[in-house]
Amino acid sequence: MSSAPHSIRATVLQQTERARRCSKAEIERFIEKTEQRIISLESQINALIELRDSQRACVLALKNMASPIHSLPIELLVEIFDLAVEDYWHVENLYCISQVCWDWRQVAQSTPRLWTRPVTIVVSKAGGAADELESLPEVGDATAQWKTWLARSAPLPIHISLVKPRFDYRDINRYILEEGLRVAHRCASLRIDIKGSGTPSWFVRRLAQSKLDSLDELDLGYVQDDDTDRTSVSFTAASRLQKLHLINLGALQIALPWAQLTELRFHCDSPEAFEAFRQCANLIRVYINILQRTPFFEVRQDMPIQFGQLCTLSLHSWTGFPFFFYRLSTPALQELQLHGVRWIPADFTAFQLRAPNITSLELIDSYSCVPRDMKAAICDTPSLTHLTIKDCKESFDDAFISSLCYKDGLTPLVPRLHHLVVDSNVVNFTEDVLASMIMSRWWTETERASYAAPPVARWTYVELRLSMGFRPYQLGARFTEPVKTIPPDVLIYRKDVVY
């Protein structure tokens, strides 16, 4: 080690020389005096360190004040926070933002609109917060997190889902439901999805007694039949309610403002559903799922049903068309989805003639549908642009495919069709027939320019999801070679099979 001005060795030599002729008492006095000097120096050093740290803090504070972020108005900072927060992770993102600095925490936690995105609460007891609010670790358990979120979003309208997953056998945490009732007046949308037991009838009854001035969307799910009080429950005072999802009217009689609804999702198995449906004159979208064979024929069949604004109609039924669908008049209908529905072609045609503006048709799980029925279903939809065929067994065959093929000199079927999705686990067609049909409705930009008005629309999207049972099906060269000029973002099909 090289010597230094204040090395231990030099110091030892210096003090040895100094104390050579000194007594032990004199040496001890030197030690005491030196230690006092050290204490004095340390005190001065500590004072200087404190002064230095204080000056550093002043510099940091001044830099913080001079930084561009602090020249932003609070309103603009809130907009930045709002854009930075992702919908799925909104609670976690806001928690992270609030940890950056005290100022950001104050802005985030005191701005209610940042805390009003939809939130899902699991209503089960114990087990912790199995929902989005577990991202608020600073506020304790699930119920505390739930209460904190409600406080931070106040007084703005909120969107709440109260759920209990399937196979969750824990009891319901009544406190969470009580908190939901306490803020019901702020709910813009309220969804209850309690698997297994269903929505408690006491909750529905007390919810109906709440002030629901903000409620636009209500999903009651399946309501338990456990109420000894058989008096009706009324939601007619919910003046803004437009969207409703309900599974059965059930034994609990529920009065709803049917006439003001614009969207209805109804799972039903009783004739009462028809009477309710008939009252929804202003529907724009309706999704009906008939749960079992329903005695709709007990209701008068000579009663016409007018829906002048209905744009979307989805019917899920394994029992065939309920008779009242044959009596529907839907001149504005654009989207029609039939799931598992069996129909009589003549009656279905009559229905389509009263709905001349259908642009999107989805046929799903129509196992009993034969190719001629499939062709009849699209013959009377001249405005059709989107067609989806899923799990319709053997109805997507050469005859049906050929009917879609454009041929010069012949009036084309569905001339506006440009979007086709076929999802089938049965391959009942010849590959070159399918390729010919697709190519007959495709041309290059040069070919397209040669038409003053193209006779049929050119494909914008074709997707083929094919399998044989549980094994994916790979189309061969008889299909792939003719269609290879079509861009891969327009024609989508399985090009290789992975087992």
TrEMBL record:
Residue ranges of coiled coil: 13-51
Residue ranges of domain F-box in the record: 69-119
Pfam families in UniProt: F-box-like (PF12937)
SUPFAM superfamilies tied to this protein: F-box domain, RNI-like
Keywords: Coiled coil
Keyword Lipid metabolism: no
Gene3D superfamilies (alphabetical): 1.20.1280.50, Ribonuclease Inhibitor
Record flagged with keyword Coiled coil: yes
Top-level lineage group: Eukaryota
InterPro entries named among the record's database cross-references: F-box-like_dom_sf, F-box_dom, LRR_dom_sf
Name used for this protein in its record: Cytochrome P450
Organism per entry: Mycena sanguinolenta
